[in-house]
Write a structure and sequence with these properties.
With about 350 residues, this protein is α/β, with parallel strands linked by helices. Helices cover about 35% and strands about 15% of the residues. It is built from ten helices and 15 strands. The strands form four sheets. A seven-stranded parallel beta sheet has the order 3-2-1-4-5-6-11, sandwiched between helices. Strands 8-15-14-13 form a four-stranded mixed beta sheet. The longest helix is centred in the first third of the chain and has 22 residues, at about 100-120. The termini are far apart.
Length: about 350
């Protein structure tokens, strides 16, 4: 039985990856930080076995800020594969806590790579890179050969982690790869990420527990895919004969506005746009209430206007490609958040 170690196992990607690896017969180990409150709802179901058999899923306390804990976990688990998914992963927040973001997202990768090197184990290493590396993109679509132009402390930290992973591969002969994943969403996405913020807020507005949804730059364009499909690509990267870096993306782009309006149509909310710029609002034409407005607080100091990925290398070499459209993804997320908010999804009416 293969063993996998996942940092960030309680996050969106970590939970989907844990599910996938368990289905493939792996023994899965996750690194979790010690805190006074539990944050494990995304993986709680993985401990429930209707047949009362012990699931091969184990959690270990550790932190990307603590080298000794990482080395201890690696030596204890002796994993065949390591997936580094942990990070301070919110771009907007990284402007407020740049030092912490650099320490966890950037230096945390250095600590994990060095712990693996020091262990002497032949574990295969996956580093979660990000499309934010391209930032002010110098070409579109972006491929593995496109130069980086990071536009946030988060992206700068990811750039450090990317090059360090490649350096450890070349300097020490380690099987270490970077997965440059473009935006990937799901009902498990964090509530402060824009797609999930939209779907959850609209469900709460229908439920009467929230008045209005406030957004920043609605013209930002992103390449949005389904997270559950992307973790399959992560796994495939570590099954190749030789280590290499890959982009995972849909190759299609949509604005935040288009995602919002897709969700409004999915919920059958009739709307009208009024005003311009920072004064723009969306009004529910049935109730007359403003349900979406602009808040300058959500604008970033430096914006990333357009990201769209070229995943032809992944399709050719990994036999991987995105299958879920943005419309289907939006519907999936809206339906899940309607359930959470206790309101009927329109298709079930």
């Amino acid at each position: 039985m293969k063993r996998a170690l996942i940092t960030g196992i309680t996050g969106q990607d970590g939970s989907y990856l844990a599910e996938l690896l368990l289905e493939k017969g792996y023994e899965v180990h996750g690194v979790v930080r010690r805190s006074s409150t539990f944050n494990r709802e995304r993986i709680e179901h993985l401990f429930d076995d209707p047949h009362k058999k012990k699931r091969p899923l184990f959690l270990h306390y550790g932190d990307l800020g603590d080298s000794s804990s990482l080395l201890h976990i690696i030596l204890t688990v002796k994993p065949d594969e390591i997936y580094n998914l942990a990070a301070q992963s919110h771009v907007g927040v990284s402007f407020e806590v740049p030092e912490y973001t650099g320490d966890v997202t950037g230096l945390g990768t250095a600590r994990l790579l060095e712990a693996l090197r020091s262990s002497g184990l032949p574990s295969r290493f996956y580093q979660a890179s990000s499309s934010e590396l391209f930032g002010k993109a110098l070409e579109s679509p972006q491929s593995e050969e496109t130069p980086f132009y990071p536009r946030s402390p988060y992206a700068c930290a990811k750039a450090y982690a990317f090059y360090l992973t490649r350096n450890y591969r070349e300097a020490y002969g380690m099987y270490a790869v970077n997965g440059i994943l473009f935006n990937h969403e799901s009902p498990r996405r964090g509530e402060n990420f824009v797609t999930r913020k939209i779907t959850l807020s609209l469900a709460r507005i229908i439920a009467g527990t929230q008045e209005c949804l406030y957004l920043g730059n609605m013209e930002a364009k992103r390449d949005w895919g389904y997270a559950k499909e992307y973790v399959e690509g992560m796994w495939r990267m570590l099954q190749q004969e030789k280590p290499d870096d890959f982009i995972l993306a849909t190759g299609k782009t949509a604005t935040v506005r288009e995602f919002l309006e897709c969700c409004l149509r999915c919920l059958k909310i009739p709307f009208a746009r009024e005003g311009k710029g920072k004064e723009e609002v969306y009004r529910d034409t049935r109730s007359g209430k403003v349900i979406v407005a602009i808040d300058p607080h959500y604008f970033r100091p430096t914006e990333v206007d357009l990201l769209i990925g070229d995943a032809s290398k992944a399709k050719r070499e990994l036999k991987w490609e995105a299958k879920t459209s943005m419309d289907s993804l939006a519907a999936l997320m809206v339906e899940a958040d309607c359930k959470r908010a206790g309101v009927p999804f329109p298709s079930s009416l």
